[in-house]
């Protein structure tokens, strides 16, 4: 897993980034809007795919939607009292899809320097890997958002470990963190000349740090006064859609 660039994660709350996207400074506004697009393009892509769109149509729709946001300056009219930014965004996307023919010009007109370059192959590969569930488009949007938050926290953990000179340990133990490794602590430690006990301690510390980073990532999507524990429970719920 490759660490994200520093400005690709939730360094501030979503609503704060929306306000920055409306800033008079065009450079700051463009960076903020690019950050929002990077964070939310795949959940919107998965949302539209689950509605029955083809991969090409979903890619075009998301690209067109973000181009329309730039063209229309729609974020200028955001009302923070209407709830979570991601809820507002998917509502705006629904509106865009419903009136897409009216926005055809904006959808086809890209900025001189595109805000976001979507890798359609990456999006479809991620969509194909989604769990086989009976989920509505809205549930899949929330699931994709939750997975993206987990990934950002893991990317930060990896970056920290590499910076500390422990990248080899992270690579060896990441599967134990995610539950995807079938290696025992003894087997995982052998290539690193670490005892079973030392591996267990190292994994425990990684898990604790990952939990802290995850809470930071979730907390960064909230505004002052909003409850972190409630949002953590929502994230866990979003990660457990009903399987077929």
Largest sheet: none
Q: What is the β-strand count?
A: 0
Name the average pLDDT.
79
Instruction: Measure the end-to-end span.
Output: 29 Å
- The amount of beta strand, in percent, is under 5%
Low-confidence regions = 1-12
Please give the radius of gyration in angstroms. Answer: 20 Å
Q: Helical stretch count?
A: 11
Q: How many structural domains can be distinguished in the coordinates?
A: 1
Structural class: mainly alpha
H/E topology pattern: HHHHHHHHHHH
Shape: globular
Helix content: 55-70%
Provide structural commentary.
This protein has helices at residues 14-21, 26-50, 55-72, 85-98, 104-108, 120-128, 137-163, 167-178, 185-189, 196-219, 228-238. The protein is mainly α and 244 residues long. It has one domain (6-238). Helix 2 (26-50) runs antiparallel to helix 3, helix 7 packs across helix 10 and helix 8 (167-178) packs across helix 10. The longest helix has 27 residues, at 137-163. Mean pLDDT is 79; it is low at 1-12.
Defining key terms:
0% strand, globular, mainly alpha, 244 residues
